[in-house]
Structures are given as C-alpha cells and as structure tokens.
Amino acid sequence: MSSRIVGQVKRVNGPVIEAMGVSDARMLELVRVGESGLIGEIIKLSGSGATVQVYEDTTGVAPRDAIYGSGLPLSLELGPGLIGTIYDGIQRPLERLLELSGRFIERGIHAEALDRKRLWSFLPESGLSIGTELEPGAILGRVQESSSIEHRVCVPPDMGGTLSFLAPAGDYRVDEHIATLDGPDGARQLTMIQRWPIRSPRPVLGRRPLTIPLITGQRVIDTLFPLAKGGTVAIPGGFGTGKTMTQHAIAKWCDTDIIVYIGCGERGNEMTDVLNEFPKLIDPRSGKSLMERTILIANTSNMPVSAREASVYTGVTLAEYYRDQGYHVAVMADSTSRWAEALRELSGRMEEMPAEEGFPAYLPTRIAEFYERAGYVDTLSGLEGSVSIIGAVSPPGGDFSEPVTQHTKRFVRCFWGLDRQLANARHYPAISWLDSYSEYLEDLKPWWEERVGGEWAQAREEIMGLLQKEVRLLQVVKLVGPDALPDSQRFVIELCSLFKNAFLQQSAFDDVDRYSTIEKQLRMLLIITLYWRRGQAAIKRGVTLVKLKRVKAVQEIVKMKFTVPNDAVEDFDRLAARLERGIDQLEAIYA
Amino acid sequence: MPEANEALARGEARRRLMSGREYVGASRIDGPLVFVRNTHPVGYRELVECVDAEGKARLGMVLDTSDEVVVVQVFEGTDGLTMPGTKTRFRGKSLTLGVSERMLGRVFDGLGRPLDGGPAPIADTDMDVNGRPINPTAREYPRDFIQTGISSIDGMNTLIRGQKLPIFSGNGLPHNELAAQIARQAKLRGGATDFAVVFAAMGVKHDVARFFTRSFEEAGALDNVALFLSLADAPSIERIITPRSALTLAEHLAYDKGLHVLVVMTDMSNYCESLREISTLRGEIPSRKGYPGYLYSDLAELYERSGMIRGVKGSITQLPILTMPNDDISHPIPDLTGYITEGQIVFEREMHGRGIYPPVAGLPSLSRLMKDGIGEGMTREDHPHLASQLFAAYSYVKDVRNLASVIGEEELTPLDHQYMEFGEFFERKFVSQGKSEDRGIEQTLDLGWEALKLLPAEELHRVSEEELNAYYHGDRDQ
C-alpha cells in the first residue's frame, strides 16, 4: 500500500466519503481508505476538502481514518490473460478472490488482474530490429492468448521511441521485461502489461464509416433492424421482456472476434449461467469454445454501487484494448439503467441538485461519452478494429418515456424495443417490429447487395409494409371481427401471423433454431414473400383462404426454422418448389 | 511520512478502545433517528445501544457519521427517549445475530430476541446481519425442480431450488394462503428432506402471523420453522432489520448446516415504506414516489441473499410477498423487485372475484429459472413445449375475450369458440384448485393436455409431432 497520506475521513455516507486536510491529491486519483485499504477514487476537490467514491462496502469506516494516495488514476491492467476471465467492476479477478476470501467477497482484498505466474509464449514481430523507430501503438510481438485469440503486444498508445532491446522468442511472464524504447524522456522498459485509465478513450488514427453489419444470427435483428460493426444499440424493456436473454443470444452467436459482457447491477445467477454455459458452447465460426473469446465483468446488484458505476468503463476500456490489436469487439452492457441509477445514488449522496427523476443533470453527457467510445477505426498499429456497444435499458414500469431511455435514444442509432405483450405471449425475442428502428439500414445496403443481391432490401421492405398494414387491419378486426374482412385482407393478417411464428420468433433453446446464417435468413424471408405473392394471386382467382392455409407446404413453412439446418439451405429450393406446386394445384381446381 | 502513518494507526487503535465509552444526551431526536454530537470517531453502520431514562437499552445502527454529528437509526423506536437522558454507546462493531440450528421452532422479534417466552438460544456463531455479497463464481446455477403441488406454479411458473420468486399480490387477495400452502407442500422429487422454513413478517397484522403459525402447526412442521415477527404495532423501523435477521439465520442453516431453506418474507411493501420513512427524515433526494434512489440496491441486498453455492449442500429459496399499492404493477416496489428477482407470480383481482384460487394471472407471471429445471429427467419431457403452448393459447384467449366483449360472443368464429372453451377449462380446472390440494407434476401436466384437447391439433404449433402423438392423440384413442 502506498504510504502517501493525502487526507483524512471527515464524513461517511454510504459509498461517498468526504475527506478533510487534503493537500496533495489529484482529481480521479485512486486512493485507499482506512486500515483495510478500501479502494476509492477522488471525484471532487474543493479547498482542503475532497469527495471520495469508495468501490467497496464502507461499513466500519470512521472519521479521522487515513486516506492513502496512489498517484495514479483508476486504471486497468491490460495484457495477455484477460480472455476467459471474470472480473468485478474494478477489474479484480473473481476467481482469485474466491481463493483468497471464500464464497463471500470480503472487504479490502486485493488481487492482481493478470496472473503473474503464468508463462506466455512470446514471439517478437518480424522486421523489428534494434534501432527501429516505433510509433505509439506499434506491434512488438504476438502471444497465443486463447485458442481463438492471438494477442498482439503493442507499444502503449502514449509512448514511442527507438527500439533498443527486444526479447527473443520464448516463454515470459506478463511482468517480465520484453522491450526497451529510447524516447525523448529516456529509456523506457516495457513488459506485456500496460495500464490505461478507464475513463479516457484510447486514441486511434481515425474513424471509418460503418458499412459492415454485425451479424447476430437473430433473424429479427439481422433482417429487420441490423446493427453495424462499430455501431451502438439500445435494448429497452420492462422486467421479464427478455433483455438478458437477447443479450446472451447475441453474445453467443454474433460474428465479432471478442465479447465483453458487463453484468452491471443484475442478478448473480445470470452471471453463473453465463459461466456455466459459455465454456460448453461452440462458436460456429471458429469451432472453439465461446469462453475463448469472452471477458466477463460481474458487478451484481448486491455488490457495491460505485463499482457498478465504474464497471461499464472497465468493460469498454478492455474492448478498446483489443480493438487496438485489430479485433472486432462487442460490448454488452446489461443494464445501463443500473449504471445510471448508480450515478443517481452517488449524486444524491453528494447532495447535488437533481434534474429529472432525481438523476443528475450530467446524465446525458455521461451516456453520450459512453456510447461515443464505440466505432470502427483505423488503429495506431495500422489495423482495422471496431467496438460495438449493445446496451440494455431497464425503464421503470416498462415506460420508455423515462430519462435513461430517452437520453440513450439520443445517442444510439439503433433501437430494439422489447414489447411486454409479445413477452407475455412468450414470443421471443420480444423485439417489437413497430417501435424498433435501425439507422444503419441504408449504410449497410451495399454490403447486402454485394453479398446476396438486391432481393434482400426488396423483400424486407415488402414484409415491413405488410406488418404496418396488419396493424390497421387488426384495428378493424377489433371492432367488427375477422369474418367481416374479405379473404384478400384476411390473408395479410394470416401472412403476418405466419411471418411472426415462422420467422421472427426464434428459440434460444433449440439446437437448429438458436442461430441462423444470413443465407438461411434470406431464404426463409424469400419463401414467405413467395407465399405472399402466390397466395395473393390465388385468392384473386377465387381460391379461399381456408384452402390456401391447408396447402401442406404452408404447414412446413411454419416449422422450417427447426427442420432446415444452416448448412442445408438447398432444402429451401425444394420447399419453394413444393409450395408453388401446391398452389398451382389449388389454382387448377378453381380455374 | 512513516511517523505520520504510525500516529494514524495508533489513532485508529485507540478509537477501537473507545467503543465502551458512553455519551449522555442527544442533540436531536427525530422519528427513529437520534443525533449525537461530539463523539469519538464512530464507524459507519456501527452497532449502537441507546439507553433510555429507565435503563432499557435499545439497539440501533449508525447511518451517517462525521466529525460533528453521528446519526443513529434506533430499531426499537425512540418513544420515551429524552434529549438529556439518552445515553449512547457505540459498540465498535456492526450488528450481528447469534445463530444456531436451535432457533428452529422458535419465535423471535425483528432483532432476533425470543418472543415465545423461552430463553435466548445459545448461539453457535455470530454473523453480521448485513451479509456479504456472494462471489458470482462461487454460485451454483439453480436447476432442481421444487414441486409445490400447485398447477399454475409447477406447470407454468416452476419454482426452482435457490430461486427468488416473489408473489405480487394486492390487498384482500389470498397471498398468505398460497405462501402457506407452498411452505407446507414444497418438496423435491425423490423426496430429499433436510428442509427448514424461515419466516420474516414485516408490519403484518397479528391474525396474519397467527394464520401462518397455525398453518405450520397443522402441517406438523413447526419444529422446522423459525419466525421473525415485526408486527404492525411494532416500531416501523424494526422492519428494516427483520428480513436481514431472517436471512442471516437462513444463510447459517443453508451454508453451514446444509439445510434447504425456504424464506418467506411478507410484506415487502411495508419494508419499503419504512425505508422511505427514514430517507425522508434524513432529507434525502427522493426518486420515484418519494422512495430513495437506493431502493433498488437495498432490495437487491436482500433478494440476492438466495441461491446455491458450489460444494455446499444447502440452498436458500426466497418467496417474498408484496402487495402492489392499488394493484399497480408499475409501482416502484413491484417494479424494482421484478428487476431483481427471478420471475414473479402475479395475482389478478378479477380472477379472485370469479372464485378462482390461486388467482395466478397467466400471462404476467414468469419463472426465469424454469427453462433449466424442467423437461426430461427433471419433470417430464413434454413439459417445456406444453407450457409454452399453454401460454400461447391462453394469450390468444385473452385476445378473443376482448373481441367478444366488443362484437358479442355469438359473432366469434367456431375456432374462437373453441379457444373460449379452452380458456374456461384452463382457468377453472387447471389453475383453480383447493387450498390443501397437492397435485403431482404428472397430474398437472396431464391436466394441461386435457385443456389442449379442446383445441384442434393444427393450432398447436409449439409442441412436437411426437408429443402430440403421445399425449394428444394417444389418450384420445384409449
């Protein structure tokens, strides 16, 4: 523990401590409080006083307790060994804490984020030699961190100089000396660890437009409301509407290289579920276990509230670190409302003037700062990488007009609104096709056209149009009953209900259905629009809706998501042929 | 610098020694809060004894501590305390509860002192009532099915050992009956015993407490039950500590003694009201409806003290009961609870009015842990699809009923009529059952199929062919 005393406790109010006699402390400096050395951060300085936000339970802290300074802002340890680890909100490895303090998290325990004993096989970057001029962020060497991730050890972004030593290939611990850079302020020894303050975005060369979709394997998302790599999306929904289920499904099947999953103020059992399930699931792209590409941050609802505030920054900083190595990273924040509430609680304890519903006036600024850390960038190392942020929002009472949802909507470009009614009918994912939107649609169109041709956009528009039409028709049905509508209009309702059952609903528990490739999604969509066009024509020719529904191929469409696996999309040709034949036969009877 | 350090360390050590010191006089008494000035440095959440003029000690806890003034929340109320006559002792440690297995079969107040006239049980160990967060990596994911014998729960919203599943009820609805029925009937398949019930009553009426005691008595289970009662006429502040005492005992029984503990907490709305009372007195900035901004974190501290731990035999299953003010599910108490707990059993007044017991609303009720605890090897292989199909069909029934209320029942299509019949059967035969009727899971699932047989097979999209053959067509042929 640092011996530099920067002040004394004056008042303790929950996680907020007022300090006195403060002379030599910096804003956002990491401090330790009292004998047990609780971790805290200086968040306000005024005269000889300061306000400290403590990341652990403050029971027993008393006035006059000493506050020790560290001279550093709250920073993360970045290096090999992050992947597959579960951390708390301030990057303490929970498995290590379990060894140290047992099943309950005791206060004041410390553990290094990266395992100091483990050896990593380091391979220096070819082409580097003594005397090479290295820019900040340049790659020094490589380490196989997990079976799916090759860790690229880079020069820290705030450093550069002439290489005067580079370790030869071999096994090293993370804190061993692997390179020396001679810079303007002398020689700097580098290890595989670098530190970065969680509240500052890591620098990049430049940002790129977002033109590549982030494929999640979830049909309602990829087909109707796609997200771009480097984009931001909010998933708001009341309790029980499936926010966490949706986040889990995306974390499992999306096509990014790395997932950072932040459980921010949520249930302990949900994190356990992830810990149990992810190692067993196989990433369909790499064929490796999902845990080999996942970092978990668990700050459950009963863990200290200020660490909850820090956890989202911890998560996004880890994501930026891997982005800088040229990876595509998705950050899942579940839930950003708990983070906002932590801000509110701390702000209340500091007796700040509240704005809406007790939230501090700087809430929108913080939300904006967080989401702006997403992006598709050119990294300092000369590679391309992205950070996409998928934030769950838990609006009180499921009411989207509350401040967190409203401010979040201002700063994200994609919105997947979860609908209580759909969830009640156990229609999952309960993403409403009426409330949701994606501003990336136009930006991503060229990518789809290049991959699959213009059919995608056309079919999507057709089906969205029908869904809108259905709403109007259902209003009529509510007043006069379905029998009053002609078959041509009842067919719209029929088709939409088929589309919802056969396409939008997706079972996370079914081995075939839980993930759909874009090829499968497109083929499914095309079969449904084929049915729409052929059915419409048939009804015009006098075929009744009842007869049309009984066509055997139509029944098969309902179950195609379960019966046609991702690698057998040619089955859809046969299904389409059977559908055409069935309708041909019907038409022949009525002709 | 090192000298300064040593000086400080010495200062802290001295402070611990001062814990026996007594301060006479309070500077302000406001509701349950006592303000004491000019004390030695007192720790946050430290245990406090306030002694009144008659020499009776009341327990309290430090809520806010600073150089100038210490705010103490007195659990047993402040009536009778005088400003000059109040003596305050800071105990230098946090509030603990002496716990042991011998507490089963006894009745305590909110602070764990016997109310049944018996002597205080000898404690095996002292535990901090505030608990400590369980390390998420130490948790075992709950997946053992608990059979409650109640179809609407077992079939549709399955309770899992280690789950926290609240009952969202309203005034005048039979939540107490249901909680008591669950406590009496709950069992594991395969019949492992080693169970205990810890019951925490916050601000409930005397007759409600008596109802629970009698109900446990009749079941012959009283020896396995520990009751913590803070009744409606006890100081409201005691309610803050009651669930914490109960959960502390539950943790001891579950994690040290290997028992499977069911914790029934009623009524969480009263608990939250006490919290609001304190918050308002302290002049804190309120968030929704005057409740403090930390209500979510505070409730989470209670609800998250449930679950299972790797390598430990016992478990804590929580069944909190709350009455929704004005039956409003979006009220902050049910709302925040629903965000923390693993599902909810929601009561519907309209069903109660029609004489359906338990009046469990079909659609808003949910058990999040159900998915991993049912199906082959746990309940029966058709259970997941059957439950999903029943939900889907019942959801459609609601639509049809709305339609019928506009256009009249006669105008409905024949299929919609079938759905109406299904809805009626589902509510009257499947959901509805006797207050001591204990249905096996097989019986529950068969009843579910019975209901589905009122619908044509083409309507059943969510069950597989095989299940249809085995349970839908199969039985019909016989």
Short description:
By secondary structure, chain A is an alpha+beta fold. Chain A is 35% helix and 24% strand.
Commentary on this structure:
The complex is a heterodimer of chains A (591) and B (478). By secondary structure, chain A is α+β, with helices and mostly antiparallel strands. Chain A has three domains: 5-73, Elongation Factor Tu (Ef-tu), domain 3, CATH 2.40.30.20; 206-434, P-loop containing nucleotide triphosphate hydrolases (Rossmann fold); 454-590, Bovine Mitochondrial F1-ATPase, ATP Synthase Beta Chain, Chain D, domain3, CATH 1.10.1140.10. Chain A contains 16 helices and 28 strands. In chain A, the strands form six sheets. In chain A, strands 8, 18, 21, 22, 23, 24, 25, 26, 27 and 28 form a ten-stranded mixed sheet that branches. A six-stranded antiparallel beta barrel of chain A has the order 1-2-5-4-3-6. In chain A, helix 11 crosses helix 12. The relative contact order of chain A is 0.10. By secondary structure, chain B is of the alpha/beta class. Chain B has three domains: 2-94, Elongation Factor Tu (Ef-tu), domain 3, CATH 2.40.30; 98-373, Rossmann fold; 383-477, no CATH class. Chain B contains 14 helices and 22 strands. Chain B has helices at residues 2-17, 151-156, 175-185, 206-218, 238-256, 268-281, 295-303, 332-340, 349-353, 370-373, 383-407, 414-431, 441-452, 465-477, and strands at 22-24, 28-30, 33-37, 46-51, 57-66, 69-74, 87-94, 96-99, 107-109, 125-128, 139-140, 145-147, 159-160, 167-169, 187-188, 195-204, 225-231, 260-266, 307-309, 315-323, 343-346, 366-367. In chain B, strands 9, 11, 14, 16, 17, 18, 19, 20, 21 and 22 form a ten-stranded mixed sheet that branches. Chain B has a seven-stranded antiparallel sheet with strand order 1-7-4-5-6-3-2. Chain B starts with a helix and ends with a helix. Chains A and B meet through strand 1, helix 1, helix 4, helix 6 and helix 11 of A and helix 1, strand 5, strand 11, helix 7 and helix 8 of B.
